[in-house]
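The data layer described in this paper is built around a simple, fixed record for each protein. We quote a single record here, exactly as it is kept in our systems:
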Amino acid sequence: MTVNVIDASTGKVEFLDTATGSSLATRTLDSNQKVKAVGLEVELKGVLQTDDKFHITSNKNGSGDARNLFEIVSLQNSTDGTGGFSDIFASVVSGLGSTLQSTRVTNGSAEALHSASLEIEAGFSGVSLDEEAANLLQQQQAYQASARILSTAREIFRTLIDSI
């Protein structure tokens, strides 16, 4: 189909059958430079000049013709042995759910191992404050006992010296 600008000043256009050259419709562009005819709505942009011709053809490359949408819809009723779209979707969701549950169990085990390893590390490298306090108290008592022994020995020695 061809759109021919008959009069650019008035916006008069003619729709022609490209194969036969027959006129299909004659219309006038509206204020937005749009026109409807033969089941089409056409918008002409830019500055028009009389005898401008625009060729309208089908989209042979498939861009924008909704072919992908039809392919997706056909998946719903697929009979290739993999099931329809709903079956495939349910299978994917089920697999994802079981993988998620397995990951949660693995995560729980890993957290338990982490806690256990931290406790073991603390047992080897950490300092027990209670144990250290008990050792310090024991050392303090031993020091006090040694000090008494020395004090007693000094008194005995002094007494012996004074008696001579």
Remarks:
- The chain has a mean pLDDT of 87.
- The helical segments are 67-76, 85-125, 129-163.
- Residues 4 and 22 are 12 Å apart (CA to CA).
- The two ends are 145 Å apart (CA to CA).
